[in-house]
Amino acid sequence: MGKLKIGWAEESLVPDKKVSLVGQFFERISQYVESPISVTACAVEACDDVAILMSVDIVSMQETMISEIRQRFAEICP
């Protein structure tokens, strides 16, 4: 039986400058951070199998971003 490796990390997604906010019919610019947002990832490796689970504090994610994330993981763990 092979070794089981588990790792996790969390990173803040709070921008360091004011940003345009979505959700209204007019442009709104952020004034402060009401709630922190982050991404958390957990990686599990057993023998030659790897699984990566991610949780992101956002409402939706564009398909292009998902594809880029998958591509970057594929480069790290072919």
Model description:
- By secondary structure, the chain is α+β, with helices and mostly antiparallel strands.
- The chain contains 1 helix and 5 strands; from the N terminus they run E-E-E-E-E-H.
- It has one helix at 63-76; strands at 4-12, 20-21, 28-29, 38-46, 49-56.
- The protein has a 3-stranded antiparallel β-sheet with strand order 1-4-5, with no helix packed on it. A two-stranded antiparallel ribbon has the order 2-3.
- The two termini are 22 Å apart.
Question: Characteristics of this structure?
Answer:
78 residues, alpha+beta, 5 strands, elongated, 3-stranded antiparallel beta sheet, two-stranded antiparallel ribbon
Number of H- or I-type helical stretches: 1
The percentage of residues in β strands lies in 35-45%
Shape: elongated
Q: Count the strands?
A: 5
Question: How many strands, which pairing sense, and closed or not: the largest β-sheet?
Answer: 3 strands, antiparallel
* Secondary structural class: alpha+beta
Pattern of helices and strands: EEEEEH
Order of adjacent strands in the largest pleated sheet:
1-4-5
Mean pLDDT: 88
Regions with pLDDT < 50 over 5+ consecutive residues? none
Oligomer: single chain
* Termini gap: 22 Å
Radius of gyration: 17 Å
